[in-house]
Request: fold
Amino acid sequence: MVSVIMAAYNAGAYIEKALEGVFAQSYADFQLIVVDDASTDNTGELLDKQDDPRLLVLRNDTRSGAAFSRNRAIQKARGKYVAVLDADDFWHPDKLAAQVCFLEAHKRAVAVGTYAYETDEEGKPLKKLLFPTDPERVKCSTFFRCSIVHSSIVIKRSFLVDKDLWYNPDFKNAHDFELWSRAVFCGAFHQLPEYLTYYRRSPGQISTASGSTQDAYAKEVYKVLLQRMGFSPTVTELQSHLQLVGMETSEENAALLSEKPASIRKEILRWCVALHEKNKTVQLFDNRLFAEEIVLRLLKYCNDTSLGLFRTVGLLLRLHARLGIGVFPYFRLPARRSKRV
Reply:
């Protein structure tokens, strides 16, 4: 059995589509646990209208947050596997079947996600979201970004319980990233290269409505990941890392980037080398795969900052020389870049 868990707060505009996607699954052996986090719109009424016996609705007396609500649902779950679905996202009808089949065939796997479509507010696909698919690459990538779409994951419940892995209620945002940043070091996370999850970008979405708050919590995740590698990051090191992963840390940093671009590039290059050297010592990640991920992140940084072809090539050549990488599999880039539909 799969226990599908959903936290819902004022999700009346989208929750029916999410529920329909679950009830339409070709894999029918599931229970659906929805925790209504003291909604003040019509979410409760829409849930009351459902008559499928596989649905269990729990209600928080006061608003307690999505992390608390999801933990509550996991505690009530009876399934071998837990599937997470945000109330504004939805699924392909064969999603659970494909993931259960994968997990049953790969006993060492503890979780599996999927590629995803990013959609507009109406649910129309706009972009294809691609991610690493094998566990070591997922782990390396998670050091630099949240590499798992929250609504795509199916995970063994026993893994969560045995490893004491729960959502952190102190994280009002980015609590999925915080959980994955711990979990990927405890077991093998895979991803299916199939577009089975629809991730909705909507005005009321947490990551849209609370971008600065989201970034603040993500920053805390990155600090802990750096500490896991053995760093006690200075302000400069943390700023270099946040710039490498694509976060704007402050208006002062943005001004510095425009005023002193050469010194910023030099600092980020130095930081890339420092990450590589530290990993060679602590062996947190596979050396070759981590070096490849560093190159990918620097390449994305160059693209995001519109560095230009010649400066980008020059920076990458210097990075290759310092990391000791003679040949980099640039042919893999299309498998990692998001694409417009």
